[in-house]
Design brief:
By secondary structure, this protein is mainly β. The chain has one helix and eleven strands. The strands form four sheets. Strands 2-9-8-5 form a four-stranded mixed sheet, with no helix packed on it. It has a three-stranded antiparallel sheet with strand order 3-7-6, with no helix packed on it. A two-stranded antiparallel sheet has the order 1-4. The relative contact order is 0.25.
Length: 107
């Protein structure tokens, strides 16, 4: 009977990405890891063992699952949050004037 240790994975710190930018998510894995799977694949541009490059258009939590030759697995998660640019932040603060309607904006 062969006993395999549980692999280890650290997905890394949460990231903040500017709208339209990309980020590399590179986990730290134990040397016995033979397989790495990322979910969701939404926003994923490139998958190069063990990391991925993402360009999500909304904040996304990615889960990385690793396995070793014995089928033992471990998981970790990392958040890729989208930072709103100045115009998007301004749009969220604009409201129509109660007396002037949509022709006049209150900031």
């Amino acid at each position: 009977v062969q006993v395999y240790p549980i692999p280890t994975v650290e997905a890394g710190p949460d990231r903040t990405i500017n709208v339209g930018s990309v980020a590399d998510l590179n986990p730290v894995i134990s040397s016995d890891v033979t397989q790495v799977d990322w979910q969701p694949t939404f926003g994923m541009m490139r998958n190069v063992f063990p990391g991925i490059t993402v360009k999500p258009n909304q904040s996304t939590e990615y889960t990385v699952e690793v396995k070793n030759a014995g089928g033992c697995l471990a998981r970790d998660k990392v958040n890729a949050a989208i930072a709103l640019d100045k115009m998007e932040r301004l749009k969220k603060r604009l409201v129509p004037s109660p007396t002037m309607g949509w022709n006049c904006w209150l900031v």
